[in-house]
């Protein structure tokens, strides 16, 4: 029954594909998005599976237009055609990288991936709040495991070798731990060893609320030990002239002031290359609490998360003194939202939930709106706007007084 529903959903996307390729790319995107309401009549997880299969089969539009020059940016020494990326959690098994990059994302992050396959938590485990374009999930790192994902990444690399345009931007690999593992650091190191050579950057996810005990790894002592072990494993591997992929940590929005200070201190002291802020929240802010789905356990994502995650992002920019690239994630639904993340301190921005609601047409719209925001406020590039809400920190870093900032700039970091 599940297979039949997936095939029917993919066929619906394919039926649209049969005629939207005769239209201009914006019309193609709108037509692809128009199938969304039909698919969303299904169970949320089934809708997710259908979306992945449509992307994996290249049934979605392919936007080959160059991005506006103002959106081009360089972070971690990597070139991004635009700063809008797809967050981890959508393509958990790296099955649809080419199709998703083809939609116009500046980068795509796959995972979270655990060393061994695991089914995740019992179903149902995804709950929509459509009135708010929000979702609550308790997936629990369901994925096929590092070996299967490695095969998928090898297949993508082979396809991209034949058609380099398939790899529009950098590819991130998000690592997790198995639910029953007694050694979290070992799990991350296993995943890194198997997948790092296929990644442009790596993410250690210590912030999902759906794996018991995972968020405890954000404590200062625990995080420092974990980062040192994982970073050491990466650095002992043999790398070419370009060196190892940057290592990022993904943190939760549910942090108190001490948590934030500790994470910032560990990230700077241990040489982490960046932070992703943030994962989903276990809180039910504002009007979310009025909806029945709010009673479900799991992480909340979508626009109700925006203010909380952006607040933490701003705090982490301040606590790191602008010396670390930050990726803003959580509740982005428009180019203005992305711009606010950038002004708060994000060098890159990720989204997921609103994309699942609105479909492919969201991506060109957000990029267009972001370019308009930059132009409106007199910024010629994304890099110029990063941290604009923190003028004192920006002045300090640009003055050359901060030795840490100077050291970071040698790695290609943006301020």
From TrEMBL:
Instruction: Provide the GO biological process annotations.
Output: 'de novo' pyrimidine nucleobase biosynthetic process; 'de novo' UMP biosynthetic process; pyrimidine ribonucleotide biosynthetic process
**Is this entry keyworded Chloroplast?**
no
Enzymatic reactions: (S)-dihydroorotate + a quinone = orotate + a quinol
Entry-linked Pfam families: DHO_dh
Annotated coiled-coil positions are none
Query: Which molecular-function annotation in GO is an example for this chain?
Result: dihydroorotate dehydrogenase activity
Give the cofactors, semicolon-separated: FMN
Q: Name one GO cellular component term.
A: mitochondrial inner membrane
Keywords for this entry?
Answer: Flavoprotein, FMN, Membrane, Mitochondrion, Mitochondrion inner membrane, Oxidoreductase, Transit peptide, Transmembrane, Transmembrane helix
Compositional bias annotation for Low complexity = 399-415
EC number, as in UniProt: 1.3.5.2
Residue span, Dihydroorotate dehydrogenase catalytic domain = 71-374
What is the similarity comment for this entry? Belongs to the dihydroorotate dehydrogenase family. Type 2 subfamily.
Protein name per its UniProtKB record:
Dihydroorotate dehydrogenase (quinone), mitochondrial
Per the UniProt record, the source organism is Chlamydomonas reinhardtii (Chlamydomonas smithii)
């Amino acid at each position: 029954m599940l297979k039949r529903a997936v095939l029917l959903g993919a066929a619906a996307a394919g039926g649209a594909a049969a005629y939207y390729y005769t239209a201009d790319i914006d019309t193609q995107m709108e037509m692809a998005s128009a199938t969304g309401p039909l698919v969303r009549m299904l169970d949320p997880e089934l809708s997710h599976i259908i979306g992945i299969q449509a992307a994996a089969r290249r049934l979605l539009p392919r936007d080959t237009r160059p991005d506006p020059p103002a959106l081009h940016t360089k972070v971690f020494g990597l070139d991004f055609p635009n700063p809008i990326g797809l967050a981890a959690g959508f393509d958990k098994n790296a099955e649809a990288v080419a199709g998703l990059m083809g939609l116009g994302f500046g980068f795509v992050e796959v995972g979270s991936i655990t060393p061994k396959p695991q089914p995740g938590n019992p179903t149902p485990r995804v709950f929509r709040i459509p009135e708010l374009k929000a979702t609550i999930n308790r997936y629990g790192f369901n994925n096929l495991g590092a070996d299967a994902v490695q095969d998928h990444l090898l297949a993508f690399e082979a396809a991209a070798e034949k058609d380099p345009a398939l790899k529009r931007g950098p590819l991130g690999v998000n690592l997790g731990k198995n639910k029953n593992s007694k050694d979290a650091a070992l799990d991350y190191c296993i995943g890194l060893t198997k997948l790092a050579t296929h990644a442009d950057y790596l993410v250690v996810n210590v912030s999902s609320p759906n794996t018991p005990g995972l968020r405890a790894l954000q404590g200062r002592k625990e995080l420092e030990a974990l980062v040192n072990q994982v970073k050491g494993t990466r650095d002992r591997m043999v790398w070419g002239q370009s060196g190892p992929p940057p290592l990022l940590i993904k943190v939760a929005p549910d942090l108190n002031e001490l948590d934030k200070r500790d994470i910032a201190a560990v990230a700077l002291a241990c040489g982490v290359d960046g932070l992703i802020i943030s994962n989903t929240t276990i809180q039910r802010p504002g009007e979310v609490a009025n909806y029945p789905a709010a009673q479900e356990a799991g992480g909340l994502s979508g626009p109700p998360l925006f203010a909380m995650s952006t607040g933490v992002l701003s705090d982490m920019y301040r606590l790191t003194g602008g010396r670390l690239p930050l990726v803003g994630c959580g509740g982005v639904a428009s180019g203005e939202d992305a711009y606010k993340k950038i002004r708060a301190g994000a060098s890159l921005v990720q989204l997921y939930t609103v994309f699942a609601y609105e479909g492919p047409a969201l991506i060109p719209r957000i990029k267009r709106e972001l370019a308009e925001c930059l132009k409106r406020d007199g910024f010629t590039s994304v890099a110029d706007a990063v941290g604009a809400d923190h003028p004192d920190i920006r002045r300090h870093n640009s003055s050359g007084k901060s030795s840490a900032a100077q050291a970071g700039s040698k790695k290609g970091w943006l301020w």
